[in-house]
Amino acid sequence: MEEKTVSRSSWSGKWAFILAAAASAVGLGNMWRFPYLAAKYGGGMFLITYLVLVVTFGFALMMVETALGRKTGLSAIGAFGALKKKYRFIGVFQSIIPFIITPYYCVIGGWVAKYAFAYLTAGPDALADGGGYFTSFIAGNYSSFFWMAVFVLLTCAVIFFGVKGGIERSNKILMPLLIGMALCISIYVMTMPGAFDGLKYYLVPDISKFSPELVIGAMGQMFYSLSLAMGIMVTYGSYMKKGDDLEHSVRRIEIFDTGIAFLAGLMIVPAAFVAMGSGEAVAESSGPSLMFIVLPQVFQSFGGVATVLGFAFFLLVMFAALTSAISLTETCVSIVQDSLKSSRRRAFVICTIYVLVAATIVNLGYNDLSFIQPLGEGSSILDFLDFISNSVMMPIASLMTCIFIGWIVKPKVIIDEVKISSKFKSEGLFVVMIKYVAPVLVTIILIAYVAAQFGFFSM
Ligand code: PFF
Q1: 84, 180, 226, 400: most buried by Cβ count inside 10 Å?
Q2: Exposure of 172 by Cβ count < 10 A (0-12 exposed, 13-18 middle, 19+ buried)?
Q3: Rounded to whole angstroms, how far apart are CA atoms 207 and 426?
Q4: Other C-beta atoms within 10 Å of 177: how many?
């Protein structure tokens, strides 16, 4: 395991940073979460809302986080504290979020690993039964626990043996393969009956679908997918050199991450239409299981090559998930290390045990603890953790960040840092977003959302 070094290491260049940040950003959020949210929240309207948020709010927030990290050379807690001691708590608040996400991320990572393996053992027909296989897998007593543990241990082993660099390098081959495969699958899906309606649903915005819930869904997804509002990009920024162009890097990461999410949606949403028929049916039944139910049906129609195709696809998704899980777990390790002042090794053991235990509880939410339905009838512990982190904590974390940078330390602190290495082309947009638009938007959306939850009006 890599021991803590005294001086801070840095990326070998701008592209090393972009690739590492992209490896953290591209994961289950793109392949699993984005398509089901797009399907659930009315396709095109969600897509356009998401895109607008990424290039405005997401851009501004990622600039703040990376510049803050580079300026202070510290991770979140220290970085906020370094600008103003009293505001360390923002970093503390952000640092709680990876501890909520990592366990359930690993549960879904386990689902993906299981599916890759099941293509070789159970075969494509068994998996394409419209949801029965998936339900009995997650509700079963052993299998889902076993695969969750496999995924957690794999993640921790990569960290422990210090081979993360190797995994990230292999991503340079695996990621393009995943993109190529997703592209081919989406083209193939278009040839299936009913897929065109799905394409229209995915691409053409229907204004009547607009709601505060859609905006909060898109916003939470943006934080999740770009790994924002949880302190991670601050740490990544702290490894950047003063000469690296921040704005260019941030734009590249956004384009890459959003491109892959878009592609995943292009593959899964029309496939859901083929399987379920109408927009209403798709919106109604879209949730965390969508990818695992719909894609096996697409693969099955390939006949003889379905086994290889399904195996390869889920294996590639698993790799993308693995690099994100590594980044999440490492964040937890460094937070424990810093706050308990413990050795890296001890922090690593604590985090491994924590993730295993917490992920077991998340898993139990689908069988022995299935009576716990925190978000109403049929919801699970996983749904709750996903909701509390993405729809509640991350908006609050981002609101605090905007107020802190926009009004307390002032945007100039960030702008000056950006300008050390390059011109700041979107400076105007940045200031308006951080000072006015983002805080107002987040406040309105949060109030509307909470009011709706308490039944003051319906969304
Ligand atoms: N951005 C990742 C995804 O879309 O799957 C999730 C994630 C990874 C969030 C790493 C945070 C993180 F540190």
Answers
A1: 226
A2: exposed
A3: 29
A4: 15
Q: Please, how many CA atoms are within 13 Å of residue 267, restricted to the half-sphere of its CB?
A: 29
Statement: the pTM of the whole predicted model exceeds 0.90: yes
Copy the structure tokens of residue 142: 């052993």
Alpha carbon distance, N-terminus to C-terminus of the chain:
50
Decide if 112 contacts 321 (C-beta within 8 A).
yes
Residue type, 400: M
Q: Which of 50, 62, 101, 257 is the best mutation target for the ligand 1 pocket, counting ligand atoms within 8 Å of the beta carbon and taking the most?
A: 101
Ligand 1, CB cutoff 6 Å, lining residues: 24-25, 27-30, 224-225, 227, 230, 232, 324, 327-328, 331
Q: What is the rounded CA–CA span in Å between residue 146 and residue 111?
A: 10
Cα 265 from chain centroid (whole Å): 14
Position 294, amino acid: V
Mutate to test the pocket of ligand 1, among 101, 227, 234, 262 (most ligand atoms within 8 A of CB): 227
Rounded to an integer, what distance in angstroms lies between the CA atom of residue 381 and that of residue 378?
Answer: 10
Helix residue ranges, H only, 277-404: 279-285, 290-300, 306-340, 344-364, 381-387, 394-403
Model confidence pLDDT, tens digit, residues 336-382:
988 898 999 999 999 999 999 999 999 999 999 999 998 888 889 99
- 396 pLDDT more than 80: yes
Joined together, the tokens standing for residue 384 give 């709750």
Helical spans, DSSP H, in 341-377: 344-364
- Measured in residues, the chain has a length of 459
Give 91: exposed, middle or buried? Use CB within 10 Å, 0-12, 13-18, 19+. Answer: buried
